[in-house]
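Per your request, structure below.
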């Protein structure tokens, strides 16, 4: 039985699907399968997929013109592997060891419900031209319980395509939360991410460029820039901020679980105090992840003076401080 399933949605992507599938199959980890959720494609994309003649690729033909959100939902319901990851037929992987790195960490630590990494952007000329959330490449993002203050203070977003999840937890999310009604796909994985963090499931960051997202005329990035969606994006961001605020307000009741929903630790007064130490340290040092020029951020200011000796001294000071936070058992 396979360990991991890539649930990949496809809709008339013949221009990109060949390159995408090649990056899937270039992984040095072999114990995975690819489930293509095709939404009534009218081009040659399915013929291209079948041309690989691979027994790990399965095509699920969706009836009618179904949206990507529901395609992912149906795909999740079809799998029984221990782990799941998501992809679209226009995007792909950059690190061909991504699966093996992630699965090794997950197999060795039952406390983890997900692992995630960095990503990059492939532009319309097919070139990698931008690293997403570049501010966080220099430092190891805190893991497990220590990710919570970092997540809340920096507004960090675990990208939907560069994360490998416990399938049990993802299915629990679908069954318990009404996240699929009246939501666009743009919101779907941020809702999953917020639910997992809010319910005390733990993750770990791997400092690699796992995948790329492609900019093209029908990409979510391009669609979101259209005037008709500006108000929706504004309301979405307000909703996400409110969800994060609720986590902060209810922190004193926080309980952390492993992926089998067994309690690992709980927040008590001492841990609550230590949480706020972490929270304000990250808030002072790091910029919010979606702000390009956060001039109040120490990290941003230092990066502008990176050729000066002071930058290296202070950067190492912050790195040592962060490691100290992560080594102390603040939540255990």
């Amino acid at each position: 039985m396979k360990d991991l399933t890539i649930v990949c949605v496809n809709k008339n992507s013949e221009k990109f699907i060949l390159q995408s599938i090649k990056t899937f199959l270039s992984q040095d980890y072999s114990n995975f399968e690819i489930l293509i959720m095709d939404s009534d494609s009218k081009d040659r994309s399915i013929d291209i997929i079948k041309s690989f003649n691979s027994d790990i690729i399965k095509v699920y033909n969706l009836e009618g013109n179904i949206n990507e959100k529901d395609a992912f939902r149906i795909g999740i319901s079809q799998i029984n592997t221990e782990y799941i990851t998501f992809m679209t037929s226009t995007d792909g992987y950059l690190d061909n060891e991504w699966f093996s790195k992630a699965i090794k960490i997950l197999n060795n630590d039952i406390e983890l419900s997900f692992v995630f990494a960095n990503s990059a952007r492939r532009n319309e000329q097919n070139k990698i031209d931008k690293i997403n959330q570049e501010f966080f490449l220099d430092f190891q993002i805190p893991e497990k319980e220590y990710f919570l203050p970092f997540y809340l203070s920096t507004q960090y977003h675990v990208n939907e395509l560069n994360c490998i999840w416990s399938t049990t937890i993802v299915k629990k999310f679908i069954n318990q939360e009404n996240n699929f009604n009246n939501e666009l796909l743009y919101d779907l994985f941020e809702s999953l991410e917020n639910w997992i963090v809010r319910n005390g499931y733990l993750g770990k960051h791997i400092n690699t460029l796992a995948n790329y997202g492609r900019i093209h005329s029908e990409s979510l990035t391009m669609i979101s820039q259209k005037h008709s969606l500006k108000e929706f994006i504004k309301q979405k961001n307000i909703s996400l901020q409110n969800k994060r605020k609720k986590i902060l307000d209810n922190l004193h009741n926080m309980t952390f679980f492993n992926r089998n929903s067994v309690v690992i630790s709980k927040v008590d007064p001492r841990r609550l105090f230590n949480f706020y130490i972490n929270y304000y340290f990250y808030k002072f040092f790091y910029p919010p992840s979606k702000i390009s020029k956060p001039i109040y951020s120490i990290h941003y200011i230092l990066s502008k003076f990176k050729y000066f000796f002071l930058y290296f001294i202070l950067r190492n000071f912050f790195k040592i401080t962060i490691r100290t936070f992560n080594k102390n058992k603040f939540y255990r």
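The domain at 4-241 is CATH 3.90.550.10 (Spore Coat Polysaccharide Biosynthesis Protein SpsA; Chain A).

Regards,
D.
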